């Protein structure tokens, strides 16, 4: 039953106008709905007001708010089908629907409404921007209530506008909360910069730079306390580009200054945003300091690997050349009766070749990271020897103070550690071009399990400190000072390998090499090495027996040596040297040729009776030294084998000399060392 309402009175429009003002003000959607309920009761005389909202994805509406409607009714109408009752008809499109309670189908809701005296229900469509956002339900105890349809339709629009505003406010509040939570907890730095000043920083940036957020607010963008001055141009350029609306996906790297002065490497990206306050830039930054350090370490490792490969490749040929020089020089010194002047010159040639070989060995020790041969070393004796080697490099303007602790011992390779100390002494001299004080001391260090120092294993150590009074080392150089080929010396005055080699040697010893320095106050390098107890005194060994020289096979007067080496100069030297010290020789360029010779003499051929000893080069290109040695052992199970090389991987040399009857002679060697090694092998055969 539909009742046509009378025209709306002026008072009704006044109420509606107040609702409109309220819905567009700052009172909030909930206050608008409450006021709308008041207006419904005031203007229509309804004894109950309900608000329904559509159920997403279903043709149903759900009760969301009500006033003066007993629970006996609301408990049965929490959800309604869109075609049921006045509210359902309004949900399906009717602006206003009026239905008698008696017309409802039988059920608990109808019975409860009748018992409570309700006679009429009215449904009002609530809408905003042409879309239904809800339904207003009114209950009357009058069978024919006086209704103003225009007023009700307008009321539905006002409430719809209020509900849309409420949804927008809640969405904005949720978005703000969501994004604020994201920005506050994301593990990257986020800043807002407006008018070239910091307006906001998130906790991640405060953590990176160790400053409270309020310390940033209001600071200028190009504050040297935030960005390193050298990076100000790129920061200003990227900010200006963002303000022009340019969009770039590329990150740019800057150095940010932490509160304690330490620089952090940050990758940044900025984008322009506009709000009611005008344009601003939102910048994000990722602290990549550790990541970049890992990349530098990886690049350093690759550089060392390349250096090792290169040095290993040239060491064999280089040592062969040095071997030829030193070998012939030693041969001339033994065979030719030269005068003192010529003998001195030959000795200088041989010594220079020996020093070149030692330099090659040091380069290989660094590049190949060979394990040092460790033994107990007294710190005072080690420092005394190294200082004796360094004294010729210090003129009268230098003073040297040494203060080693008595009875301190370390575990290490003496020659390598002397090389480390000599490098540090020479660096200290170079840091004091006008003279100064070189102070050398040592102290015990104990590393506990709870607080390891620089990746050192827990235990006892001895730290050797080498200090100078030079100009000091800038902070930015201290991170790269141990990298290979890095030097501040003029071209031609340094290779950049000294400290890198020292660092590699100390690390291979299980120790640590560090530096402490301040500009203008000198530098202190600390070599931390594993400590050990002094060795026990051993009884004096019995005097050595003279070496027994085994008689050659058969009735021959001279032992026979089968030797193979790919270097023609070495083969020529071996032929003359071995003949000079009493050996017959057969020389070959490769192991394959030597094996073919042996196989050809298995009967009564040329190789029959050969050899008494074998000399083999294990660095012949294209040949597997392990396989060659196995083939020799198969043919000559009891024959001594002398292995020689200008360069050999430590594990290969150990594998080859692990069997009985083998020995290793590094190149270059002198004729005296060759004679002793061969006689020792033959004497033990």
Keywords:
41% helix; single chain; alpha+beta; 5-stranded antiparallel beta sheet; disordered N terminus; elongated; 685 residues; 23 strands
Descriptive account of the structure:
The chain is of the alpha+beta class and 685 residues long. Helices cover 41% and strands 23% of the residues. It has 19 helices and 23 strands. The chain has a six-stranded antiparallel sheet. Strands 8-7-11-10-9 form a five-stranded antiparallel sheet. Strands 13-15-16-18-17 form a five-stranded mixed sheet. Helix 1 (10-23) runs parallel beside helix 6 (149-185) and helix 9 (289-335) packs across helix 15 (568-580). The longest helix has 47 residues, at 289-335. The radius of gyration is 47 Å and the shape is elongated. It starts with 9 loop residues before the first helix and ends with a helix.
């Amino acid at each position: 039953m539909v009742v046509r309402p009378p025209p709306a009175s002026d008072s009704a429009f006044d109420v509606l106008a107040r609702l409109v003002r309220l819905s567009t003000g700052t009172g909030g959607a909930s206050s608008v709905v409450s006021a709308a309920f008041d207006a419904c009761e005031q203007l229509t005389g309804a004894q109950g007001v309900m608000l329904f909202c559509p159920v997403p994805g279903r043709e149903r509406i759900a009760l969301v708010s009500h006033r003066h409607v007993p629970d006996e009714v609301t408990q049965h109408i929490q959800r309604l089908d869109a075609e049921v009752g006045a509210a359902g008809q309004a949900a399906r499109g009717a602006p206003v629907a009026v239905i008698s309670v008696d017309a409802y189908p039988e059920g608990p809701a109808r019975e409860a409404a009748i018992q409570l005296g309700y006679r009429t229900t009215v449904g009002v469509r609530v809408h905003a921007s042409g879309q239904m956002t809800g339904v207003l339900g009114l209950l009357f105890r009058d069978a024919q209530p006086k209704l103003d349809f225009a007023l009700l339709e307008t009321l539905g629009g006002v409430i719809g506008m209020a509900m849309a505003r409420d949804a927008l406010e809640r969405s904005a509040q949720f978005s703000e909360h969501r994004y604020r939570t994201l920005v506050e907890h994301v593990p990257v730095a986020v800043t807002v910069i407006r008018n070239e000043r910091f307006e906001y920083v998130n906790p991640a940036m405060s953590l990176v730079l160790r400053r409270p957020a309020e310390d940033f607010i209001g600071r200028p963008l190009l504050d040297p306390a935030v960005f390193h001055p050298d990076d100000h141009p790129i920061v200003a350029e990227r900010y200006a580009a963002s303000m022009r609306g340019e969009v770039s996906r590329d990150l740019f790297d800057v150095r940010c200054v932490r509160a304690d002065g330490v620089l952090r490497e940050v990758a940044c990206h900025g984008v322009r945003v506009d709000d009611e306050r005008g344009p601003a830039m939102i910048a994000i930054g990722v602290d990549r300091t550790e990541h970049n350090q890992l990349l530098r370490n990886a690049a350093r490792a690759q550089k060392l690997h390349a250096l090792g490969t290169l040095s290993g490749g040239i060491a064999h040929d280089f040592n062969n050349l040095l071997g030829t020089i030193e070998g012939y020089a030693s041969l001339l010194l033994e065979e030719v009766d030269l005068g003192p002047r010529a003998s001195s010159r030959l000795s200088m040639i041989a010594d220079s070749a020996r020093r070149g070989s030692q330099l090659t060995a040091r380069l290989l020790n660094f590049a190949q990271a060979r394990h040092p041969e460790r033994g107990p070393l007294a710190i005072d004796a080690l420092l005394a020897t190294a200082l004796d080697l360094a004294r010729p490099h210090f003129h009268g303007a230098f003073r040297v103070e040494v203060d080693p602790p008595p009875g301190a011992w370390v575990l290490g390779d003496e020659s390598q550690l002397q090389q480390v100390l000599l490098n540090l002494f020479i660096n200290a001299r170079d840091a004091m071009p006008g003279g100064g004080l070189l102070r050398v001391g040592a102290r015990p260090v104990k590393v506990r399990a709870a607080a390891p120092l620089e990746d050192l294993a827990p235990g006892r150590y001895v730290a050797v400190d080498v200090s100078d009074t030079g100009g000091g080392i800038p902070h930015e150089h201290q991170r790269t000072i141990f990298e290979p080929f890095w030097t501040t010396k003029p071209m031609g005055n340094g290779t950049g390998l000294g400290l890198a080699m020292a660092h590699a040697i100390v690390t291979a010893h299980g120790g640590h090499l560090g530096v402490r320095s301040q500009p203008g106050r000198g530098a202190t390098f600390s070599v931390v090495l594993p400590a050990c107890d002094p060795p026990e005194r051993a009884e004096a060994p019995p005097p050595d027996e003279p070496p027994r020289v085994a008689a050659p096979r058969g009735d021959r007067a001279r032992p026979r040596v089968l030797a193979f080496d790919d270097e023609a100069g070495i083969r020529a030297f071996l032929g003359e040297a071995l003949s000079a010290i009493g050996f017959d020789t057969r020389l070959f360029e490769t192991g394959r040729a030597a094996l073919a010779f042996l196989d050809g003499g298995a009967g009564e051929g040329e190789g029959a009776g050969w050899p008494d000893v074998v000399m083999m080069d294990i660095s012949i290109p294209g040949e597997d030294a392990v396989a060659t040695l196995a083939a020799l052992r198969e043919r000559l199970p009891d024959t001594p084998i002398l292995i020689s090389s200008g360069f050999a991987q430590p594990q290969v040399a150990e594998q080859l000399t692990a069997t009985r009857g083998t020995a290793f002679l590094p190149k270059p060697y002198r004729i005296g060392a060759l004679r002793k090694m061969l006689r020792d092998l033959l004497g033990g055969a």
